[in-house]
Amino acid sequence: MAPDPFAHPVDMGEDRLRVERFVETRNVQSFDCGDKDLNDFLCTEEVARYDRENLGRTYLAYYEGDLAATSRSATTGYGSNT
Q: How far apart are the first and last CA of the chain?
């Protein structure tokens, strides 16, 4: 029987994991999530446009200082200028 890979305690303290909102000044060109379209999205002006137009938010997760994951949340409604 193979050992259970989750049988050890998880150590994800705040000093090791940090999540922050995407800002254009972040260098993300070296990040590779395995999906070329998603990688390319992060390296374009579209991320900022999504934020400006309130279409969604992009977050970056760093583990021990290295970019480890990205997440996007979509907005559920549209703004009104009336």
A: 64
